[in-house]
Q: What sequence folds into this?
């Protein structure tokens, strides 16, 4: 069963064109904070994405010179101080569900980060598959700054895999900003690009990925997420099965035919 993704969202911006979806938070006057409503709608949108055949790649973009300032202080932090433990747990599970939905959506996600990228905004960038940034990007997992633990929305599991245990520990304990240059050097950002090239470079990367075998990309994303909890032997067996499935696709046959004809393959994602 497949479905078409929708652009008529209420709590963030979404544009779908030629198989590439660009989403971004839409409160640039406040550096794009998240609210209860935007968390929930993003979670549901990414959950639906796994069933969609009209989107191949997602760009999570910046808006107004910033990516996201995280959870809104007035709309989220304030109300949380008055909630019961049960309601707080319901909220933290919802935010974690957004990360799980991004990881399990089956589509490569590119974060295009400019300016402020902190708190839950940093988590969204972290949960993406690839990350481009401008030299002005400032990324902070600042949960300790508001009296909370650094272990938020999977940060203690995912961030060390990207930048290493000790660097992740420093950011999660101190809540300090990671500069764009540090982020690139540590492997958080794939590369830095000029501010005026961020959107175009992210789109170019998305098109480059989209031109590949998209069913196989789904397999790659699945294995990248699942193999962290596997032994080497289990991972090799899982990849053997995944690759055998991909060998049944039309894209595998198209690649072979193009090679024989000395042409560039044109993949169709099936």
A:
């Amino acid at each position: 069963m497949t479905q078409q993704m929708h652009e008529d969202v209420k709590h963030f911006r979404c544009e779908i064109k030629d198989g590439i979806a660009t989403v971004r938070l839409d409160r640039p006057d406040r550096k794009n904070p998240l609210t209860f409503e935007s968390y929930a709608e993003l979670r549901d949108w990414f959950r639906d994405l796994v069933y969609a055949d009209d989107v191949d790649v997602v760009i999570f973009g910046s808006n107004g010179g910033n990516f996201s300032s995280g959870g809104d202080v007035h709309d989220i932090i304030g109300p949380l101080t008055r909630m019961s433990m049960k309601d707080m747990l319901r909220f933290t599970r919802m935010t974690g569900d957004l990360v799980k939905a991004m990881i399990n959506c089956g589509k490569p996600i590119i974060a295009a980060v400019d300016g402020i990228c902190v708190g839950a905004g940093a988590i969204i960038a972290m949960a993406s598959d690839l990350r481009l940034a401008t030299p002005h990007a400032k990324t902070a997992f600042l949960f300790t700054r508001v009296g909370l633990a650094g272990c938020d929305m999977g940060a203690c599991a995912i961030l060390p895999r990207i930048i290493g245990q000790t660097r992740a520990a420093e950011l999660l304990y101190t809540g300090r900003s990671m500069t764009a240059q540090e982020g690139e050097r540590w492997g958080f950002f794939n590369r830095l690009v000029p501010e005026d090239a961020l959107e175009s470079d992210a789109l170019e990367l998305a098109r480059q990925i989209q031109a590949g075998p998209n069913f196989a990309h789904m397999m790659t994303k699945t294995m990248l997420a699942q193999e962290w909890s596997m032994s080497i032997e289990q991972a090799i067996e899982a990849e053997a099965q995944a690759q055998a499935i991909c060998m049944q696709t039309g894209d595998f046959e198209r690649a072979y035919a193009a090679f024989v004809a000395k042409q560039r393959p044109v993949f169709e994602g099936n």
